[in-house]
Amino acid sequence: MTTLLSAAALAAAIREGRLTPLALAERCAERIAALEPEIGAFAALDLDRMRREAANEGPRLAGALLAGLPVGIKDIIDTADFPTRRGSPIYADHQPASDATAVRMVRRAGGLVAGKTETTEFAFMHPARTRNPHSAHHTPGGSSAGSAAAVAAGMLPLALGTQTGGSVIRPASFCGVTGFKPSFKLIPVNGIKVFSWSLDTIGLFAAGVRDAAFAMGALTGRDFALPDSSGTPRIAVVDAIATEEASPAAHEALAHAARLLARAGADVRPLALPEAVHAGNAAHGTMQEYEATLALADEWDRHRTLLSETLYTFLDAARAVTPEQYDEARRVARRARHALADAFADVDAIVTFSAPGEAPEGLHSTGIASFNRLWTLMGAPCVNVPGLTGATGLPLGIQIVGRFGRDRVALTVAAMLEDALAAG
């Protein structure tokens, strides 16, 4: 498998004069040219533009935090220099007039937009054309398929994605890279095609946990520097959410991760989540359905014949959700968040499944979000930690969940697990 591109290491090399933005752009362009026909990670590319920007703005970029790193942008996020097709023929010719806020954050931090990465239709479930870099016959996950695959294939060091259910953590697990879904609204969603305004969260993909922390610091201006020592974090093992859907390999991977964390010095204990938290799973579905019918009202009213059967069927059924049911789901969600905050009083992070198992074979499905929906609803920071494989040799990630607003703590625990997995 291709060596992944470490964003933190590459940026340091550029700042220290051991590498130039143009040389890195050329390296990424060569890799994209070699693998893109097979993987299909990009909805739009302009490698010549990336090279020109790297050449013309090299000194300025080298002094910036991202130092000219090429970044992929999921194709539901608006870009002024690229079309934003949103995975739908409805927007085949759509050219935004401005960048989304997250894209401006990338550019202000000194990142170069390499291209738009493939997304499922409106970031829902109808698969994109992207293939898993580890096996062309297995799904890369969704909806941020192109972003996860581009980083996993070593084509880019960083890529932005979004998560409404499990669309950062699941493809990161399937493709064997770090996926980070930050606390809700930490990265503004202005300029994305919304599916559910109470859930949609912009996240990112990187080679490793420290690369994700480095990128988050560069984008947000916050202190995401991870400590040299993790100390003795209190980590709760949660395996009771849809536990029957986790494969035997996933159960063994979670148990192995817990053992490694304990051996590394963490205080690891089981945690039974309050019933109020479990109730959030059903609330997620109700809220997503109701909000999607409004977020995609124009597409339904004027272009429904251009929707996939998957999305058409979903929206048609979702129209039955009443405002009263939606309002009750919001109340359930609020109670669940309060209950989870109470549960976090005695722990620093949760370790749990990222996905039911390895990437499913076939390209007709992107997998299920059984182990992601609840945490998205909670607005909690989530990290997929790569490093394990399942029975067939495909990647199998472990998820670290943190308390809302404690993103650096979640990343610190994730780095502890990453180091423990590397040490064996």
TrEMBL record:
* InterPro entries membership: Amidase, Amidase_dom, AS_sf
| Pfam families attached to this UniProt entry | Amidase
**Listed SUPFAM superfamilies:** Amidase signature (AS) enzymes
Coiled-coil ranges per the record?
none
Indicate the segments forming the Amidase domain, all copies: 24-408
Family affiliation = Belongs to the amidase family.
**Protein name per UniProt:** Amidase
